[in-house]
Amino acid sequence: MSTLLRTIEFLGLSVWLGSDVFLSFVVAPGAFRILGSRDQAGAIVGYSLSAMHIGGIICGCVFLLARVMRTKAFASLASPAALCVVLMAVLTAISQYTVSAKMAALRVQMGSIQETAADSPMLAEFSRLHRISVSLESGVLLAGIAAMYLMARELTTWT
């Protein structure tokens, strides 16, 4: 049972990291490169990002639940790997429920990002929020890589 729960931990983290990498380095650049409209590309990326955020939070919860079940101790949530996953979930929730929500509201107000004047205060705010979003996603990715490393290191101390 311990091996199965350990596998679930790795799987949850791997799926989350993989989706983050795929969205950041394949979907987003591809949408903006292939689609003729910045607004259409942004809509696809926004939709994908929202789905990835919800999926990531679920993966994080699955990871933490499997860890507690495997170790039979809530104290295991204070391990460095688990704390990285908690950080990932917090950053993801901030991105989804504050930054992305504000960006979506601005997108509706502007009607079209592509057609909005370059000196528009709303476009400036949207760009600022986009930079914050990218920073949050970078933090999630780095914390995930750290969590994966720490989990692998935990394995070497057990054998």
Would you write up a description of this structure?
It is a single chain. The protein has 159 residues and is mainly alpha-helical. The protein has one domain (2-158). The protein is built from 4 helices and no strands. The protein has helices at residues 2-34, 38-71, 80-110, 121-158. Helix 1 packs antiparallel against helix 4. The model has no long low-confidence stretch (mean pLDDT 94).
Quick recap:
The protein is mainly alpha-helical. The protein has helices at residues 2-34, 38-71, 80-110, 121-158.
Main sheet, how many strands, which sense, barrel? none
Q: In what range is the share of β-strand residues?
A: under 5%
> Helical proportion?
over 70%
**SSE string:** HHHH
Radius of gyration, taken over Cα atoms and rounded to an integer in Å: 18 Å
